[in-house]
């Protein structure tokens, strides 16, 4: 008796300590989650606070008179005249109407600093496309120069170095008041490829490049991965060789991605002579990288199909092939798709292997096929982050937001698929 | 099992087809590789070229000068690049490599110079240093301060320890890692430049070149020199936040951030466009590009691209490259270079 009471006593005495231990353990867990969330919030708020202005563009809207005299362009269909015409003159004339007091070469040069250096070639394109415009007056909107863009958006931010002179700043403020300089949604960012002028730089080229690369990766890695998983799981005999293969697939999943880039450079480019910087090679390299992920997740999905399904199918006379194709595969498909989407999301964010196969390049034209030069989104971010122009700081962050949107929607799709199609046994 | 076999076989065939059925395609886009220092200038030219002509915009890869020349010299054919940029002149060994691989006719064009600056926040005390002082501040081992001819681990903590005229702040300099061309140039121009002012160290060069290089090119590892990564923007950002540090990067980044940064005077000269162009500022290097003449006419637009680069509107004193920080050549040199480029005059190998 005395023995049992003393034991109860011991338990009672230790109870407080055990509860305390449990509370402490929970607190550790909550701290860990709080730290993770804080890190995430800091990351996101930094990116969003830096990048949200990247979705705005600064524009200059001018009443441009296409005066043949000042442009030295009497006949807008004559190639020789088109080549030698002055397309900046009508823009300068329109700006000088805003500031009649500006005169002299240095004053004009300062005024010219408000305009983007590509504005004159935009005027040229317009004239060449539509010669009838000569002699008329049009209201045209141009992207402002990088310096004006930075001033308009960040004039109160001390971390930005303003390059406009005080005179130019005063002009810009006056033009903002008159509505000539304005900010609006940055459609250029979504409709153009790369450019060295931040105002003309866009992510479309990188998005298309990413899509083309991902298409190659998906078309090759999904069938090969699923076929490998089915064979290993359903048909392969259990012996040393298959054990060896399994170990190596797991090893492959842990190989640093840059190694796959080296492999791609050695095999696809040096041995097969495929061109550098093309989505096909990028897709092949990323295929090698995602294959282990897809095989492993597909095997797990096949394993989770209960044996009773197989036995029932076999019981009514289905062949091994029919069991797999009619019953196991459809039931395992949601798990396989989830694994593949996560593998693809990983591949979408990959930069290192693409460095070696030449996809880190300045490419202005939007790629139009699997064999045209392309970059991908993470590479575009890398390139912009290293550019000296201040306008690229916000555009790099804006591109990160675009990339994150893709990644989040892919992961959301994976969760939705799992919830929607998964069957519980 | 037979069906499965055919399935596997067809997969394998599909895989190989995808891999093999890509002959060396005829290319209509100019491929350019090479130096990351020239990259910001060449990309601007490429974009102007793409906008103002009917040719597609050239593709530019930033591979570093050495990597670019290696790719460039690998052979003739559209799978190899047409043009390579370099932040130094081609070496004789690289010219040999080109010759053995059949790249015999090479056109060399010098485009201008780039300065390396030692900059700080405008809040900081600006430096006015000689090359010798820079070497003493940043080398791993320096001559013993007592004057004897032996090397000791760098004892200087503050700039003022080196010379009383320098600010009394701790030596902290952020610079690029050894993989960077800027670092190579800095080691060669600044550290070696200061190093060889000690005549007894210079004497080592004749006896043992490697020992001399080890002395003159080793940067201290005790925290006074911080390797801040290849990204020059990162160094700029750190400088604006940390007013006691100095940073090493290319002139174009100084130009872009002239509102917040100031540059140190080195060996009596400020890094201005005039001083760099005249060759007075010691930390300057020349920039080049090389054209494969065998590709002219095969890949459309190469001659026109070279002409665009060598036009006054691009590399002239008021050209658009000056706006992004290129330091132009003298007008006479420029004109001569443009003429040689237009004639596609090839190198003989003797000029190197």
UniProtKB/TrEMBL annotation, chain A:
UniProt keyword annotations, A-Z: Cell membrane, Membrane, Transmembrane, Transmembrane helix, Transport
Spell out the Gene3D superfamilies in the cross-references: MetI-like (1.10.3720.10)
| One GO term of the biological process aspect | phosphate ion transmembrane transport
Alphabetically, the GO molecular function entries are: phosphate transmembrane transporter activity
Annotated compartments: Cell inner membrane; Cell membrane
Tell me where on the tree of life, at the top rank, the source sits. Bacteria
Any Pfam family hit? BPD_transp_1
Please provide, in alphabetical order, the Gene Ontology terms of the cellular component aspect for this entry. Answer: plasma membrane
List each copy of the ABC transmembrane type-1 domain by range.
207-414
Q: Specify whether Cytoplasm is a keyword of the entry.
A: no
InterPro entries recorded: DUF3333, MetI-like, MetI-like_sf, Phosphate_PstA
* Topology within the bilayer: Multi-pass membrane protein
CDD domains for this protein:
TM_PBP2 (cd06261)
Q: What is its main location?
A: membrane
Q: Which residues cross the membrane?
A: 25-48, 203-232, 252-274, 280-302, 323-348, 396-417
Q: Which residues form a coiled coil?
A: none
As for family, the record states:
Belongs to the binding-protein-dependent transport system permease family. CysTW subfamily.
Protein name, per record: Phosphate transport system permease protein PstA
Automatic annotation (TrEMBL), chain B:
Residue ranges of the PBP domain? 21-312
- What does UniProt give as the signal peptide span? 1-26
Pfam families with a match to the protein in the record: PBP_like_2 (PF12849)
InterPro entries tied to this protein: PBP_domain, Phosphate_ABC_transporter
Q: Which organism is it from?
A: Marinobacter zhejiangensis
Keywords attached to this Swiss-Prot or TrEMBL record, sorted alphabetically, are: Signal
Name assigned to this protein: Phosphate ABC transporter substrate-binding protein, PhoT family (TC 3.A.1.7.1)
């Amino acid at each position: 008796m005395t023995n049992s009471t003393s034991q109860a006593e011991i338990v009672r005495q230790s109870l407080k300590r055990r509860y305390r231990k449990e509370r402490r353990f929970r607190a550790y867990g909550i701290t860990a989650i709080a730290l993770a969330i804080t890190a995430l919030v800091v990351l996101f708020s930094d990116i969003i606070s830096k990048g949200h202005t990247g979705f705005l563009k600064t524009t200059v809207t001018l009443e441009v008179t296409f005066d043949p005299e000042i442009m030295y362009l009497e006949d807008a269909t004559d190639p020789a005249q088109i080549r030698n015409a002055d397309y900046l003159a009508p823009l300068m004339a329109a700006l000088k109407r805003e500031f009649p007091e500006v005169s002299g070469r240095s004053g004009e040069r300062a005024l010219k600093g408000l305009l983007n250096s590509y504005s004159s070639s935009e005027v040229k394109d317009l004239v060449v496309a539509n010669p009838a415009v000569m002699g008329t007056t049009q209201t045209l909107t141009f992207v402002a120069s990088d310096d004006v863009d930075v001033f308009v958006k960040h004039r109160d931010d001390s971390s930005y170095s303003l390059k406009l002179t005080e005179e130019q700043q005063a002009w810009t403020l006056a033009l903002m008041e008159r509505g000539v300089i304005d900010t609006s949604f940055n459609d250029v960012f979504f409709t153009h490829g790369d450019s060295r002028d931040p105002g003309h730089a866009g992510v479309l080229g990188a998005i298309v490049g990413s899509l083309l690369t991902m298409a190659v990766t998906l078309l090759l890695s999904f069938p090969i991965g699923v076929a490998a998983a089915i064979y290993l799981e359903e048909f392969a005999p259990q012996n040393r060789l298959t054990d060896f293969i399994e170990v190596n697939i797991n090893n492959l999943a842990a190989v640093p991605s840059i190694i796959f880039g080296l492999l791609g450079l050695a095999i696809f480019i040096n041995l097969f002579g495929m061109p550098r910087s093309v989505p096909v090679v990028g897709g092949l390299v990323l295929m090698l990288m995602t294959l282990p992920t897809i095989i492993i997740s597909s095997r797990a999905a096949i394993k989770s199909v209960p044996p009773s399904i197989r036995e029932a199918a076999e019981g009514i006379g289905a062949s091994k092939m029919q069991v797999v194709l009619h019953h196991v595969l459809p039931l395992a498909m949601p798990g396989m798709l989830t694994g593949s989407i996560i593998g693809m999301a990983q591949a979408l964010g990959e930069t290192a292997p693409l460095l070696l196969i030449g996809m880190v390049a300045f490419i202005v034209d939007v790629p139009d096929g699997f064999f045209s030069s392309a970059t991908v989104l993470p590479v575009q971010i890398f390139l912009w982050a290293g550019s000296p122009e201040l306008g690229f700081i916000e555009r790099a962050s804006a591109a990160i937001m675009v990339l994150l949107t893709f990644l989040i929607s892919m992961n959301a799709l994976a969760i939705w698929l799992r919830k929607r199609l998964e069957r519980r046994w | 099992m037979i069906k499965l076999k055919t399935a596997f076989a067809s997969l394998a065939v599909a895989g190989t087809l995808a891999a093999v059925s890509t002959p060396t395609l005829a290319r209509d886009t100019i491929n350019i590789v090479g130096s990351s220092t020239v990259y910001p200038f060449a990309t601007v030219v490429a974009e102007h070229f793409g906008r103002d002509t009917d040719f597609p915009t050239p593709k530019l890869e930033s591979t570093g000068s050495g990597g670019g020349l290696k790719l460039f010299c690998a052979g003739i054919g559209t799978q190899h690049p047409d043009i390579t940029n370099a932040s130094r002149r081609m070496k004789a060994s690289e010219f040999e490599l080109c010759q053995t691989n059949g790249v015999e006719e090479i056109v060399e064009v010098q485009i201008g110079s780039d300065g390396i600056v030692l900059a700080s926040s405008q809040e900081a005390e600006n430096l006015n240093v000689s090359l010798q002082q820079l070497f003493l501040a940043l080398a791993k081992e320096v001559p013993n301060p007592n004057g004897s001819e032996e090397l000791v681990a760098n004892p200087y903590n503050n700039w003022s320890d080196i010379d009383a005229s320098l600010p009394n702040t701790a030596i902290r300099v952020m610079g690029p890692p050894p993989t960077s061309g800027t670092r190579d140039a800095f080691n060669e121009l600044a550290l070696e430049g200061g190093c060889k002012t000690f005549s007894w160290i210079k004497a080592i060069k004749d006896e043992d070149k490697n020992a001399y290089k080890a002395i003159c090119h080793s940067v201290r590892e005790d925290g006074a020199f911080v390797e801040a990564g290849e990204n020059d923007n990162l160094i700029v950002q750190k400088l604006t936040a940390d007013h006691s540090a100095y940073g090493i990067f290319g002139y174009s980044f100084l130009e872009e951030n002239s509102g917040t940064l100031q540059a140190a005077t080195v060996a009596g000269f400020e890094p201005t466009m005039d001083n760099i162009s005249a060759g007075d500022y010691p930390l300057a290097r020349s920039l080049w590009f090389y054209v494969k003449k065998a590709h002219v006419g095969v890949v459309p637009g190469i001659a026109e691209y070279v002409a665009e680069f060598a036009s006054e509107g691009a590399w002239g004193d008021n050209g658009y490259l000056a706006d992004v920080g290129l330091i132009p050549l003298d007008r006479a040199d420029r004109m001569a270079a443009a003429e040689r480029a237009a004639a596609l005059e090839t190198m003989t190998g003797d000029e190197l």
